[in-house]
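[User] Could I get a sequence and structure tokens?

[Assistant]
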Amino acid sequence: MKSRSDVEKHFDIVAGSYDSGKVKYSYYYGNLKKLLKTLILKNKRVFEIGCGTGDLLNSVKPKYGYGMDISSEMIRIANMKYSQKKQIHFSIKWPKDKFDYIFMSDVIEHLENPVETFQKISKLMGPKTIFINTMANPIWEPVLMVAEKLRLKMPEGKHKRIKYMDLGFMIQESGMKITRHGYRLLIPIKIPIITDFANKYLEKGLQKLAFIEYFVAFKF
């Protein structure tokens, strides 16, 4: 029997409190959903890698949605939450189908072998499939670690932030090409007056300091 990885163990442990933890950071998750909705059209075939309890996949309103996660406990909760959504399926296994969109959010830092994952993604892509990756901007790592120690954020578990330049090489090695790269959300938490002002008026000039970093890629 294959032994469970540290990442799998971690997310099995936090699965029960995962949704309540996200409520505390609803401003970030709300804006992440808005970003994904601008990148993923409704009523398409969508595959999410690292789907957690299923909220992001459900939010993009797929015609057919498939969520995969390494944590069997996360999958159990996702299947329970969305049992009435017959068009959405959750599993610990990789699918064999082709998709219009494949995405993962806050997952890349937990992968033991990102290149291997990108290669598996590439095999599920057709000529028009779009792959989207969102992640925390690596420059925020010191802030995130302090916040975790102060119990101001959910525990991250084993992870390693990867710079965009390195990801670009990995993507190219996997047979994909990045066509869009951007940043969003200068301040990821709700601070009265300050957050709205900064994200509306300062973000454009300070994009590379924003919390969410993302890219869009196609297969070539």
Summary: Strands lie at 45-49, 64-68, 88-91, 99-105, 125-136, 176-184, 212-219. Residues 6-219 form a domain with the Rossmann fold fold (CATH 3.40.50.150). The mean pLDDT is 94. Helices lie at 6-24, 26-39, 55-59, 72-81, 114-123, 141-149, 164-173, 194-202.
